[in-house]
Structures are given as C-alpha cells and as structure tokens.
Amino acid sequence: MTGTSAPLPAMPAQQSVQTGTFSTAYYRGGEGSGRPVILVHGGGAGAESVSNWQRSFPLFAANGPTYAMDMVGFGNSDAPSPEEFAYTQDARNQQLIDFIEALDLGPARLIGNSMGGCTSLGVAMKRPDLVDSLVLMGSGGRAKAGALSPDLGPVIHYDFTIEGMRAIIGVLANPGFIPSDEQVEYRYEMSIRPELKVAYKATMGWVRENGLYYPDDAIAAVKTRTLVVNGKEDKVVPIEQAYEFLALLENSTGYLIPHCRHWAMIEYPELFSKVCINFLNDTTDYGVAS
Question: Which phi and psi angles does 62 have, rounded to 5°?
Fold first, then answer.
C-alpha cells in the first residue's frame, strides 16, 4: 500500500463559527436530513481537518451531512495565546460542545481520532444529549501522565523540521504507507505557522503533564452506542487500550484493522468509512435506550 497513487480529493470551502471566545474553522459536505457526522482530528503537529480527513471526508459526505472541525490551536481555528488560554482537554471538549450547539447539529454522530477521540468521548460524558453515536478510532483517554507510549517521542518532542514531520508520520502510519511529498509539505507548513507553533507547544506541554486519561467510572458512565476502531499495530494507542474501552463502554462494538497503525482514515479510508457508516446506519436493537 502506498499513499502516492491516488490524487487527494478536494475539500469543501472552509467556513468558521464562533465557539466561546474564539473562532472554529470547519468544513461541511453532504446532503440529506440524517443525523450529521462530525469528524474530529488528532493532535499531532500539523494535524487538522484537511490533512487528517481529506481522503475519507467525501466517502462520509456521500452518506449524508458531514462536518470536519479544526480543534483550537490547530489548522485554521483560532490559536489564542497560552498566556490567556489554557490548552486543556476540558477546553477542547467545550469547543466541540459549543460547535455542536452553534450550528444546531445535536444529537450528532462523532468520529474522533486520537486526541479527537478523547474530545468526542469527553462530550459524550458531559453532554450525552448532544451525541447520537460515537466512533473512537485510536482514541486517547487511557494514557495517564508519565505512561504515554515512548513511540510518541517524535510527536511530543517535534522539532519543527521537515525531517521531524517525516518522523511523526513514520510513527503514525504503517510502514507500507508512503506519504506524498505534498502531504508531508502541507503538514509541515501548517505546523510552523507561528501562532500554531506556540499553541502546539502549549498543547503538548499539557499532555506531557496530564496525559490523555479519563477514570474508569467516567468512561463506564457513557451509555452512547460506540464503535471502537483500532489498528492492530498502533504505536500511539496500543490495542490493549481498545480492549479497555470495549470493557468499560457497555454499548460498544469493536473493529480491529490488521497492518494498520494510528491513521486508519488515511491508511485505509475506504475500509474505515465503510465500517463506520455501516455502524452508524445499523438499526439493530440491542436494548440500548435511545
């Protein structure tokens, strides 16, 4: 498998909406009256809606209304000064809540990767009324401070060089995935924008000190129907953490992808979107209260 054979599809025009004290950038596609899907990207340097979801966005949009949101301090969302804004997990959770409410999207179907999964899960904890279904793909939420995978080194300690960006991709993607020069350059250029560089350092500093962790009882309290997706070779979120989510989340289903690391939506966009859409459209009654 390579990442160079197919041209990258175009994303819809960027839009923005006020969320609390800052503006959030987003992309919207798809038609119909079904419950909207919101794609929430991960937290690596240069991550945002285009770099994370460009390959899979049109596949979700073909099934119905689809949104992709840039988290605060990433992409084209505002990046407030860390002197005035704390880049905490609670702040990201609140941003997604504000985004759903500002666009009147709830209850929505949330699909989150890594830090975006941690954020989506956080919304399901705090505001279950806003969440119809949940997909956690290589999701944060089980890594305590000091217990982050050592393989995260290139991500946590990114040096803002093109070689450093290739090292990040080397950790996140399967060795068989060869990113195009365009992909690497795009993420690199996004990562070195001055305001995003400062925000990223603040975000990763908070992650180093606090991890991306929710207590067992907080996760177990979530009753939202959930699909847990994990690459079997994920170096960032080991497969054992997927099993923990499955054990704690009462109404969860699991899907494990062989020869896949942390980027299922980039490594295997067709498979990932098909699995998610099948889950979201499934009307089987498992006794889950609606």
Answer: -65, -15
* Domain, as residue range, for 117: 14-281
Which residues are designated catalytic?
Answer: 114, 234, 262
pTM (predicted TM-score): 0.95
* Residue 270, number of CB atoms within 10 A of its CB: 10
DSSP per-residue letters across 46-71: T-SHHHHHTTTHHHHHTTS-EEEEPP
The answer, yes or no, to whether the previous bond of 215 is cis (omega within 30 of 0) is no
* 12-24 confidence digits (pLDDT tens): 999 999 999 999 9
Residue 204 sits in a domain whose CATH number is 3.40.50.1820
Report the number of distinct structural domains present in the chain: 1
Asked if the structure places residue 86 within a domain, the reply is yes
What is the DSSP secondary-structure string of 24-43?
A: EEEEEE--SSSPPEEEE---
Cα 106 to Cα 219: distance, rounded to the nearest angstrom: 21
